[in-house]
Amino acid sequence: MGFPDNFLWGGATAANQCEGGYNQGGRGLANVDVIPTGPDRRAVITGKRKMLNFDDEYFYPAKDAIDMYTHFKEDIALFAEMGFKTYRLSIAWSRIFPNGDEEVPNEEGLQFYQDIFQECHKFNIEPLVTITHFDCPIHLIKEYGGWRNRKMIGFYEKLCRTLFTRYQGLVKYWLTFNEINMILHAPFLGAGLTFEHGENEEQIKYQAAHHELVASAIATKIAHEIDPQNQVGCMLAAASYYPYSCNPKDVWESKQSDRGNYFFIDVQSRGVYPPYARKMLAKKGIKIEQTKEDLEIIKAHTVDFISFSYYASRVAASEDSNVQKTEGNLFPTIKNPYLESSEWGWQIDPLGLRITMNDLYDRYQKPLFIVENGLGAVDIPDENGIVNDDYRIAYLRAHIKAMKDAIDEDGVVLLGYTSWGCIDLVSAGTGEMKKRYGYIYVDRDNEGRGTLERGRKKSFYWYKQVIASNGEKLSCNEL
After folding, report:
1. Of the listed 74, 179, 372, 409, which one is catalytic?
2. Contact present, 390 and 458 (Cβ < 8 Å)
3. Contact 187, 208 (CB under 8 A)
4. Is 296 an active-site residue?
């Protein structure tokens, strides 16, 4: 059987990690622009340290990133050379509405993305567009407090209506919020939230998440009204939790951790707050302000498919367990002694992808779309400027094999696969350039130095072979 004939092979990026051009084309300042590299990065990401403008003592990698703002035609041509069927990218909100609350959108920003989508279609590449990939205009944070404020729903609705109308016929696959569950772990990055001393942070995060859930349902409604061909998905940072041991306490902890991960997707996919979530909120003393109309629109407008990122599996343990921690996607997890780890401590687990796919498909019975998966590594070009990234090929090959097994053996319905960072870009977690994911090398270092010249890695030719064979040729032998 293998992958279906219409399977959407491609790659993924995010505006704030690749575009640059933060002050060009009428763009406004956003939260993602003012997150620095260095030891204070995590404090800013989590809203513990308020940073709403640039400070000369810090380096801000997103300001210029890899300058896809001016290189996008070159980059899309390279994606086409690999044979991409789809390209996942995101909209910089402040490029469309610089402050976020204007009545009229910024035409330069609208034209920029129109040019990108038209360039994609020139090569028969289907755009897969994330409406908000951690972007929130700074003005909306300063004036309204970010997503803690219910008025954000209206601003987001205007953004969506503008996008769906302008790009009708150019885009039909949409994602409402990137990794919506990250609001709990990186609230400034995920929702523009900062906290004052003594505030109930949990209350604020869950209230902000409710506003995003309502906004997502409204976006789904508008998308279907404007163009019935539109397909709208939710997106989570996914990875099933293993119990650290067969101790029932560890098994229960893993189930609780999974529920915490799936909470928002349960709402977006099923249309209701699940009973376990209501009990959990009550136990925490959290009371979400919601209207009857909120619940009605959430119920009536669920997503068409489930998209997710997967990099590594996770482990959960009870308080009784003596465990060692390791790094994960923006937050640490328990080290699994059965797995190897990447240079950044992320555990490599291809079977975990198959397990996660089965868990998600069993839970929701909706098509899946893997929109992020990849290996962050230090790539060193040889004397000829070539990166022989066999380690990346090995990682991706094993994960694509796991995807194929989930389709063939388990009956999971999978729409497509866009590996993360198809071109080298700024790391969301660390802000580094040396943590590379791409098939395309970009000459830029952690301090922003370099020519920005693009170069094909060994994995570029390997992935071209994978796509051309629709996932049947996974070895490197023919390269």
Report:
1. 372
2. yes
3. yes
4. no
In a domain, residue 163? The reply is yes
- Say how far apart CA 335 and CA 340 lie, in whole Å: 10
Q: What per-residue confidence (pLDDT) applies to 333?
A: 78
Contact criterion met (CB below 8 Å) for 307 and 370: yes
Look up tokens 């053996």; give the residue: 409
Task: List beta partners, residue 417.
Answer: 9, 370
Q: What is the DSSP string of 383-418?
A: TTS----HHHHHHHHHHHHHHHHHHHTT---EEEEE
Gap between the Cα atoms of 314 and 334, Å rounded: 7
With a cut of 70, say whether residue 28 has pLDDT above it.
Answer: yes
Q: At what angle do helices 201-226 and 248-270 cross, to 10 degrees?
A: 40
Q: What is the mean pLDDT of residues 270-296?
A: 97
Round to whole Å and give the CA distance between 232 and 235: 10
- Give the Å distances, CA to CA, from 271 to 26, 32, 350, 363, 423: 38, 30, 31, 14, 36
- Assign 193 a pLDDT band (cuts: 50, 70, 90): very high
> Could you read off the pLDDT of 70-108 as tens digits, one per residue?
999 999 999 999 999 999 999 999 999 999 999 999 999
Q: Is residue 478 in a domain?
A: no
Q: How far apart are CA 312 and CA 308, in angstroms?
A: 12
**Residue 78 belongs to a domain:** yes
d(CA 377, CA 364) in angstroms, rounded, equals: 33
CB 147 within 8 A of CB 210: no
- Confidence (pLDDT) at 108: 98
Asked if residue 473 belongs to a domain, the reply is no
- How many CB atoms are located within 10 Å of the residue 101 CB? 16
Q: How many domains does the chain have?
A: 1
CB-facing half-sphere around the CA of 60: CA atoms within 13 A? 23
Give pLDDT tens digits for 313-331. Answer: 999 998 766 777 666 666 6
pLDDT (tens digit per residue) in 122-162: 999 999 999 999 999 999 999 999 999 999 999 999 999 99
How far is the CA of 338 from the CAs of 231, 315, 341, 392, in angstroms? 39, 11, 10, 20
- Please report, for the domain that includes residue 230, its CATH number: 3.20.20.80
CA dihedral 219, 222, 226, 230 (to 10 degrees): 40
Number of residues written out for the chain: 479
Two structure tokens written together for 414: 């999978």
134 lies in which domain range?
A: 8-468
Residue 116 banded pLDDT, cuts 50, 70, 90: very high
CB proximity list for 372: less than 8 A, separation 6 or greater:
12, 308, 309, 310, 311, 418, 419, 420
The closest alpha carbon to 257, from 243, 272, 275, belongs to 243
Q: How many CB atoms lie within 10 A of CB 383?
A: 5
